Predict the structure.
Amino acid sequence: MTISRLSGLRSRLPESLRPYFEVAPLAALFLGISSGFAFAMIGATLTTRLAQHGITKSTVTAFALTILVYNFKFLWAPVIDHVRLPVIGRYGQRRSWLWLVGTLVMAAVAALGFSNPADSLYAVAVAAIFMGAAGATFDIIIDAYRIELLEPRQLGIGAGMSQYGWRIGAAASGALALVVAARFGWAAAYMACAVFALPAMLVALLMGEPPRHREPAKPRSAAAAVAAYFSPLLEFIRRQGAVVVLLFVLIHKIGDTLANLTLRLLFQDLGFTNDEVAFYDVGIGFVALLAGIFVGGIVYERLGMKRAVMISLVLMAVSNLSFAMLAVAGHTNIGMAAAVGFENFASGIGGVTVVAYLSALCNLRFTATQYALLSALASIVGRLLTGTTVGALIESIGYVNFYLMTTLVALPGVFLFWFMIRSGLADLSIGSAGKDQPPN
């Protein structure tokens, strides 16, 4: 479909739907698909694979530590901002890196697929770390490309479309992996899922270098290179209230992360089959997420960023209670559909509002590094706790008490953002990516 035909279609849609059919938000959708699939390969899919091989809960949740690679991606994100690749670098800083790392992600998926837990958990761990490093780097470039492609007015809708794509990529690749694995084995399942890296690579080919990209000054000495490495962090810390903002980013998602990284264990222990998980967790969740993203876009537009973020934080905290109720109810498809549906609806709203806020915090000169830092901080505590204590904690207190606990630990983030609104820090922290006239 050409851009002119897309514009014609958009003009015939209700006004509330038109922003979703602009070119840049649609591109964000496909970028999100590739991002979500890469995470799923070492998230829910690997958890299910290990659980089906009879690996203990403590060992399975310890593999969540491989996901921690995502939380340290800010350490090498400055390379993405500053280093121009030879040969393909002439096609643009963002595009060339996206194509290179997309290829590495496909190779990493294949390596993970051919690593068999029955033969060597060590080999699986090494392959998972390789996959995590490639996927995290893919995330760095995809996020920077998305933020620089979207106009400030599109950050909310674009963030929602990106989250929508993320869930499509994670859910579709996860469901495909389950179905293929049940029939042809896990190696074939991972190989089939590798194609999900292509949507982001095709977006870069069709859309070109993002128009809002600002290349930082090239360092002329070793000292300048060191200064350039730390300049994104220093620029952020110098902002008024930066410490409070960073604390909010660090704690606001703990409860949500703890709950989501353990859901496949809950489903396995409740006796849900692969096909039931694929249908209810993916199908019902997909529809609910679509509704949540749409509602989130309307809430963001009509109530503004601050109130929209506050509403989404409350909903995401409360959604964890639904899994406590499912744990009480046991193996019930209706209960699973309701719990997954509510969680995805809340996540859809949060995907629009919270991700838009984090995107708006970035300075366009350091988009890759600053968003990598913010997104890494957003889930590092939850992932660290999942990998070190959650398996034993679930075995000790049970699923019901565990999900009640995740609801309680989500509340400090809600109260801190309320303070940020009252003190004005929610507005003062916004960077050039969230402003209509960013500096060159």
In short: The mean pLDDT is 82. The longest helix spans residues 155-184. The two ends are 33 Å apart (CA to CA). The chain has one domain: 18-210+225-434.
